[in-house]
Amino acid sequence: FCYNEHHCDPYAWGDTFPSCHPLLEEHHSPINLDYQMSRNESLGALHLEGFDTVQTGHWTLKNNGHSVVLQVGSGMSVSGGGLPGVYHTIQLHFHWGSLSTNGSEHTVDRRRYPMEMHIVNMKSIHPNVSAALEDPTGLAVLGFFVDVVYADNVHLGHITRKLSSVAYKGWKNTNNPTWLLLPEHNMSQYYRYHGSLTTPPCSPVVIWTLYEVPIYASWSQLEQFASEMYSTEEGEEDEKPLHNNFRHIHPTFSRSVYASRDAKLLLGRAAPPLSSALPTHVFQITLLGGLIYGL
Ligand SMILES: [Zn+2]
């Protein structure tokens, strides 16, 4: 599969991977996150085990032709926050755009962030990923939007410094583990829904947790992802850049999307409901207030 060529791009995945076909399965990811969600007071912060300590063991950074993947060692897990069990962390990877386009997979109120990081976790009762893909809640993915600021993110730097060593498909390198990538605060603000893998086989087995508060990267760090990576192997005649590696947005259909107890962004910003009981002039003031606030 691929992202940027007509014959194998995300719209064609269903030809080769039946479960990627949008008409056969109604649990596809990514989706747009908008005001059409309800708050679930029982969704508190997830419990992240081993994320704040320096892990030992073999961590591998790899270009698999579709993304840059950081395979992690054992010792990290995710639970709580409404997850049905303990999930072991297996890898993290990124989705990005190009030098002129944003490339997050999920969108927030139709806005696409520059990048998105996925931390993939597998339910601990399963011996391997193929077993987890048979369980409707076999995987839990934590999604973090990445926004661009002026300063380098030193923690992300542990990965971006090594990008040139995994420039081509199949290239690997060891990596120094760092979990300080995650935000220190606001980890209880997130959105939750049931969806799928965003890459083939698109299995509808993912409990998604998308954090409201983005992590940060500098423009030059983003540029390294967008312009230094290749989806082809070294020496291939037809060298192809690895960029715009995000799947298109899918309808939520009848699925529920929940805001966690502390989520602020979308529900906090929602317009007040129209009410005929409200005198017109009050409404105009409210709208004007909104405009001023917006400036
Ligand atoms: Zn992903």
UniProtKB/TrEMBL annotation:
Highest taxon of the source?
Eukaryota
Query: Would you tell me the Gene Ontology cellular component terms?
Result: plasma membrane
GO MF annotation terms? carbonate dehydratase activity; zinc ion binding
What's its catalytic activity? Answer: hydrogencarbonate + H(+) = CO2 + H2O
Which SUPFAM superfamilies does the record match to this protein? Carbonic anhydrase (SSF51069)
Stretches assigned to the Alpha-carbonic anhydrase domain: 1-261
Q: What class of enzyme is it?
A: lyase
| PROSITE patterns, per database record | ALPHA_CA_1, ALPHA_CA_2
Enzyme Commission number(s) from the entry? 4.2.1.1
InterPro entries registered for this protein in UniProt: CA_dom (IPR001148), CA_dom_sf (IPR036398), Carbonic_anhydrase_a-class (IPR023561), Carbonic_anhydrase_a-class_CS (IPR018338)
Q: Which UniProt keywords apply?
A: Glycoprotein, Lyase, Metal-binding, Zinc
Assigned protein family? Belongs to the alpha-carbonic anhydrase family.
Question: Any idea what this protein is called?
Answer: Carbonic anhydrase
